[in-house]
Amino acid sequence: MTNIHPETRRFLDRAAKEQLLHQKGVVLWLYGLSGSGKSTIANEVERVLHGDGRMTVILDGDNLRTGLNSNLGFSEEDRTENVRRVAEAAKLLAGQGIIVFVSVITPLRKHRAAAKEIIGPDFHEIYVKADFDTCAGRDPKGLYAKAKEGKIGQFTGKDSGFEEPENPALVLDTQARSADQCATDLLGYWRSVADGRRGE
């Protein structure tokens, strides 16, 4: 790595980008089981913020696995690398003043800790809570049915574990509340974070 020299001094700095966008970069990391509602909530909040003139990006786990992470499987090592790459991408985008929504299962506490370490103070841990049976009942992508038939290995919550969080910044309980209600909760959380952090 001695021949790699990151360039930063000549680039426009973060403050200049945030001033242009009139917002501060942030990473809202939504995680939970497949079918818990991560992407649905992220999409709803993004549309509201877009209508308010905000620059946003959604880093969706399935989308990333068709491109950036298409060479990764679901082994422990590959899941760790998946989170690392997503976190690095989110960090780069937030550093440009963009509001970043991450929608990735992120099953283990150590994965969330690694993402937080990479991203730093821009990282906000948002747990989208729904248990295995609830998500299996929804099964919007048909994955739970395939997992039950043994057609999918290392399926989170069945073959591969999911660890409940210890101290997330926000819990969105989609078993108890609708996706619209949870989106409203997330939007309120973002506004509380944005207060006093907006670029002028």
Task: Describe the protein's architecture and organization.
- The protein has 200 residues and is an alpha/beta fold.
- It has one domain (17-194): P-loop containing nucleotide triphosphate hydrolases (Rossmann fold, 3-Layer(aba) Sandwich), CATH 3.40.50.
- It contains 8 helices and 5 strands.
- The chain has helices at 14-21, 38-51, 61-64, 76-94, 109-119, 132-138, 143-148, 179-194; strands at 26-31, 56-60, 99-103, 123-129, 170-173.
- A 5-stranded parallel beta sheet has the order 2-3-1-4-5, sandwiched between helices.
- Helix 2 (38-51) crosses helix 8 and helix 4 (76-94) packs parallel to helix 5 (109-119).
The biggest sheet, with number of strands, parallel, antiparallel or mixed sense and barrel status, is: 5 strands, parallel
Q: Give the N-terminus to C-terminus distance in angstroms.
A: 38 Å
Going by helix content, strand content and strand pairing, the class is alpha/beta
Count every beta strand, where a strand is a DSSP E run of 2 or more residues: 5
Question: Stretches where pLDDT falls below 50 for ≥5 residues?
Answer: none
Task: Give the CATH superfamily.
Answer: P-loop containing nucleotide triphosphate hydrolases
Mean pLDDT: 88
Number of helices: 8
